[in-house]
Structures are given as C-alpha cells and as structure tokens.
From TrEMBL:
Annotated catalysed reactions: L-proline + NAD(+) = (S)-1-pyrroline-5-carboxylate + NADH + 2 H(+); L-proline + NADP(+) = (S)-1-pyrroline-5-carboxylate + NADPH + 2 H(+)
Any Pfam family matching the protein: F420_oxidored
Cellular compartments annotated: Cytoplasm
Record domain Pyrroline-5-carboxylate reductase catalytic N-terminal: where: 7-102
Domain Pyrroline-5-carboxylate reductase dimerisation, chain residue ranges per copy: 164-265
Pathway: Amino-acid biosynthesis; L-proline biosynthesis; L-proline from L-glutamate 5-semialdehyde: step 1/1
Main location (coarse class): cytoplasm
Gene Ontology cellular component list: cytoplasm
Binding site for NADP(+): A72, V73, L74, P75
Function, in words: Catalyzes the reduction of 1-pyrroline-5-carboxylate (PCA) to L-proline.
Molecular-function GO term, any one: pyrroline-5-carboxylate reductase activity
Enzyme Commission designation: 1.5.1.2
Protein name, as recorded: Pyrroline-5-carboxylate reductase
Length: 272
C-alpha cells in the first residue's frame, strides 16, 4: 500500500479521534509524525506525543499545517471549533472529514467562509485495530478526494458509500452498533457464569463464539437464518433457548434500540 504523503489534523482527540489515529498508523497509511492531534486539555495526549504524534491545543495551527482535517469533537462542541478554525481553512488546500453525528456537510460549510470540500465518515471504535465499518457520504467532494478518503478508511476496515440522508441511520447501526454487540457478548458471558463457568473463561467462550458467527456470515456470504437453521436440531436445546429469547423480546429490543439511536443521532447537533 502506498503511504499517504500529506499531513492530517485530528481536531478533538477523544475516543474516536484517537482510535482513528492509532488505526491509520497501525495500517501504515501514515506515520505518527504526519498526524497532529488536538484537544483543549493537551496534557492528556502525552503518551501519544511519546509515540511520535504531534500534539497540541492550537486548532488553527494544526489546520494550517495539514491538508486533511478531521473534525472529531462532539456535535455540541462543533460550532465553537468551526468558528476557531474558520480563518485558517482554505478551500484550495484542505479537505474536511467530519465524523460528528447528525451534522450535515452543508451545516459545516455554512460555518466556514468557504466552499471547502466536506466528506462525512461514520466509523466505529474497531477502527483502532483495522476492523471498522465506516459509512461515507459527501455532497460536494471531488471524485479524486472521495477516492483518497475511501483509500484511507479502507486501510482500517470496510467502507460503504451511502446517501447523506442515511448517515444518522449508519451511526445507529454501525457506530453505536459495536456497543450493542459488545453488550450482547457481555450478556452471553453472564449467562455462561450462571451455568457453571468462571467469568474469564465464559467471556473468552462468548467472544470466540460471536467472532465465529460474524466470520461465518462474512466468509459464507450467507443469511443469519440459514446458519441458525444448521444449529437448531429438532426438539433441541438451541431452538428452546432461541424461542425463549424471542418471547422475551430479543430481536424486538435490538430493533427498537437501533431505531431510538438513529433518532437521537439526528438530534445531537440541532437539539444541543
Ligand atoms: N465514540 C465513537 O464510537 C464514535 C463517535 N463519533 C462521533 O465522534 C465525535 C467525538 O465522539 P467521542 O470521541 O465519543 O467523544 P470524546 O468526548 O471522547 O472526544 C471529543 C474530544 O474533543 C475534544 N475537544 C472538545 N472541544 C474541542 C476543541 N474546541 N478543540 C479541540 N478538541 C476539542 C475533547 O477533549 P478536551 O475536552 O480536552 O478538549 C475530547 O477529547 C462525536 O461527534 C461523535 O458523534 C462517530 C463515530 C463513533
Ligand atoms: O454515542 C454517541 O453519540 C457516539 C456517536 C456514535 C457512537 N458514539
């Protein structure tokens, strides 16, 4: 893979900003020294500085030194940040990537005095280990820039390009979604403890079983129900457990949670 030659500013180096930074370096897309990480409390970035990242609190300086600018603050923090960097953004030089939930490309441009190109990306925290599901959308980025952003996120997982009006749905299904599956694994391990395993072995068993389920679907390209049919022996214990879960609203609760998250994701910026 060809290494990216430019410089990236990640403004808002919290959970997702740092996960992205780690993933991009781990994948070899860039070296740590090509990434500038900012947050207001930059003293919390000391370990990243020791790993070779450029760190600081001066967003305008970070933008001036970069060609790709990643906006990774909370939606409620974004307007202040955009006001701060506005004088430093140059449409001819910069490409903006925003991972903020519920903020449109148009919203971002409306706060910057320029027709700068904006791409929205919605990764999840598995980006730190190159396993993100990242959804991407833009309303004005040139093909060449969209291709570069695609290449960037493909080094740290899978990428799907979607219409911008589906970005909040993508937030719920993929970005929040990783938490939903993690909770399911945790619940399975708690069940495992009740039926006789120590917590550490129950967790290991639940994790590997979940990984096997996901890999089956990825590698066989099959539908979950096809794989479930292979597990459920007639009058067996799997269908008994599965039906008990459904009587208690397993699928329904996941669907309802995803729907609520999608509504909330759309409201985070506008109802701050
Ligand atoms: N967490 C996730 O899994 C995902 C999050 N997102 C989106 O990413 C964004 C960030 O979320 P998340 O990482 O969870 O939030 P965090 O609170 O962990 O990170 C936000 C960071 O922004 C910093 N920050 C706030 N204001 C400024 C500023 N003016 N200049 C520079 N840094 C600033 C904060 O540090 P300090 O207080 O020191 O400034 C903080 O470290 C949100 O918009 C969210 O919707 C998208 C996909 C997944
Ligand atoms: O919980 C949140 O609001 C953010 C957006 C997607 C994942 N975390």
């Amino acid at each position: 893979m060809e290494q990216y030659k430019g410089r990236i500013a990640i403004l808002g180096s919290g959970n997702i900003g740092l996960s992205l930074a780690k993933g991009l370096v781990k994948s070899g897309y860039v070296q740590a020294g090509q990434i500038c990480l900012t947050r207001r409390n930059a003293s919390k970035l000391k370990t990243f500085e020791q790993q070779g990242f450029v760190v600081g609190s001066d967003n305008a300086a970070a933008v001036a030194a970069a060609d790709i600018v990643v906006l990774a603050v909370l939606p409620q923090q974004l307007n202040l940040l955009l006001n701060e960097i506005n004088p430093s953004v140059d449409a001819k030089k910069h490409l903006i990537i925003s991972v903020a939930s519920g903020v449109s490309c148009k919203d971002i441009r409306s706060k910057l005095n320029t027709e700068v190109q904006v791409v929205r990306a919605m990764p999840n925290t598995a980006i730190a280990i190159g396993q993100s599901m990242t959804c991407m959308a833009t309303d004005n980025a040139a093909t060449v820039h969209l291709e570069e952003v695609t290449r960037m996120f493909e080094t740290v997982g899978s990428v799907v390009k979607i219409n911008e009006d589906l970005m909040t749905s993508a937030t719920a299904l993929c970005a929040c979604g990783i938490a939903f599956f993690l909770r399911a694994i945790r619940a399975a391990s708690q069940g495992g403890v009740e039926i006789g395993f120590h917590a550490d072995e129950a967790l290991k068993m639940a994790v590997q079983t979940a990984k096997g389920a996901a890999d089956l679907l990825l590698q066989m390209q099959s539908h979950p129900e096809q794989e479930i049919d292979k597990v459920t022996s007639p009058k067996g214990c799997t269908i008994a457990g599965l039906n008990e879960m459904e009587h208690n609203g397993f699928s329904s609760s996941l669907i309802k949670g995803i729907k609520l998250s999608a509504v909330k994701a759309g409201d985070l910026y506008t109802k701050e």
